[in-house]
Here is the input.
Amino acid sequence: MKKIGLMVFDFDGTLVSSGDDIATSVNHTLLTMGLPLRSREEIIAFIGDGVRTLLGRSLGDNQVGRIDEALGVFREHYAAHLLDTTLLYPGTLDVLNHFGDTKKVVITNKRYEYTIKIAESLGIDGYFKEIIGMDSSSFRKPDERLLVPLLGKYGVRNTETVVVGDGINDILLAKNGGALSYALLNGLGNRVDLMALDPDYCCEDIDQMKELFI
Here is the structure.
């Protein structure tokens, strides 16, 4: 088993199952704007690079000038509905408790206000030293400048740091910062794309962390 001093977690698709609420708000936005709806699968495939990019992909290239309009509609709806169906993934709370003495941080390309509201409502905010949202920094995943300062701040080596996530940006963040990468294959990301990046660990669910790290 590998000794870990810092665990960096993604949020959507990693700690919380939030895809349905995101997809519903995107389709509400499209409907409000008089645009064709998208399938849940299409919208899920667009998640990972922040809400502006999500909406840009959902609107399509010929609607690029309406992204600000879409953002306004989406933010109002999602703020009111982000907990309609969103829950912790099975095993999340068990893992957070199991590694209770290990420093933990969330780095997400989701806006901080949404992330902290969900984390507080689901009772997991207190497990993390800090929660870094897309608007918390001038950098976003997979930029290693999000990760490297944490190593000095918390006194850990990159080789004793693991980034846990279901998206390409999570694996690239780990690789860019010289940390270990733990790919979750049952989240929102494409499992084939994740495996193609050759992560250090490739697992079906978060609970398997207990068998790999101390």
